[in-house]
Task: inverse folding
């Protein structure tokens, strides 16, 4: 059997209008194709999630990167996180670049730190030549993005990027850059979260998925449901295992999801309290 290469992506859990969801699914599908292309060229899971999430950040369609929502003072600040092979990098309150996920990777690979915020993160973005934050305003203001990939060497990576929540107080940071809350990747399973960040930070669902799946031996779908139900607010989760099982679950109204494998690309909407294992 040919080695597996897969990527699962979400476009945020929330309440979507029909025309927006179609647009989001199209963009997610394209991002999935980009990630899959990296994997099929024997690229790493890390490169695949970076390509997919960077595309979504740049598209302006989602609440991430160029499409980020604004805070109460009318400014955007971005959060992102990435994890693979036991290392993590994350950034919060970024205003200097739309490509927050690449900045998170720089933190992981080129600094001794895990999480950098504010002026220091902005300075790092500028010094590394990342593109400036030029917001597009298309009126969508949709949701956070995330991707989890498995490469042909059986390595898993997870990435998440967001503009946070609309009308947040200046300085607010959500779950997305917090390892274990917004994202997590172990050797056996990787996941990322979307939804109400304050509740997600307190419940740490991505870390919990790993504990349920790899330490307690629960099936992947059940691990997501139990972790998601521990979050005291709307939440969406996607995950991928080293055995190439993919799953998605949400307690929000709906979450657009794409799963891209060499055998084909599937796009669908996960509805409240529904778990999909693909
Ligand atoms: N979790 C993100 C945050 O609270 C928002 C989202 O997923 O839509 O910052």
Result:
């Amino acid at each position: 059997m040919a080695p597996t290469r897969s990527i699962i992506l979400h476009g945020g859990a929330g309440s979507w209008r029909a025309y927006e969801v179609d647009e989001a699914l199209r963009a997610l599908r394209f991002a999935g194709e980009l990630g899959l292309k990296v994997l099929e060229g024997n690229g790493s899971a890390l490169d695949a999630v970076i390509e997919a999430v960077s595309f979504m950040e740049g598209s302006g369609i989602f609440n991430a990167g160029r499409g980020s929502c604004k805070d109460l003072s009318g400014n955007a600040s971005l959060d992102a996180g990435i994890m693979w092979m036991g290392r993590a990098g994350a950034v919060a309150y970024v205003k200097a670049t739309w490509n927050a996920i690449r900045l998170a990777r720089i933190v992981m690979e080129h600094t001794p730190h895990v999480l950098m915020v504010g002026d220091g993160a902005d300075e790092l973005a500028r010094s590394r030549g990342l593109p400036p934050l030029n917001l597009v305003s298309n009126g969508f203001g949709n949701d956070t993005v995330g991707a989890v990939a498995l490469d042909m060497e059986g390595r898993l990576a997870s990435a998440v990027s967001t503009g946070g929540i609309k009308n947040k107080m200046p300085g607010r940071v959500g779950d997305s850059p917090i390892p274990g809350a917004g994202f997590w990747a172990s050797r056996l399973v990787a996941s990322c979260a979307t939804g109400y960040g304050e509740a997600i930070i307190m419940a740490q669902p991505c870390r919990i998925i790993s504990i349920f799946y790899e330490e307690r031996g629960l099936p992947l779908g059940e691990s997501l449901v139990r972790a998601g139900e521990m979050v005291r607010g709307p939440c969406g989760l996607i995950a991928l295992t080293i055995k190439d099982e993919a799953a998605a679950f949400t307690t929000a109204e709906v979450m657009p999801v794409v799963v891209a494998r060499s055998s084909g690309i599937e796009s669908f909407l996960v509805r409240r309290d529904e778990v999909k294992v693909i």
Q: What stands out?
A: The CA atoms of residues 77 and 221 lie 33 Å apart. The chain has seven helices and 13 strands. The longest strand covers residues 87-94.
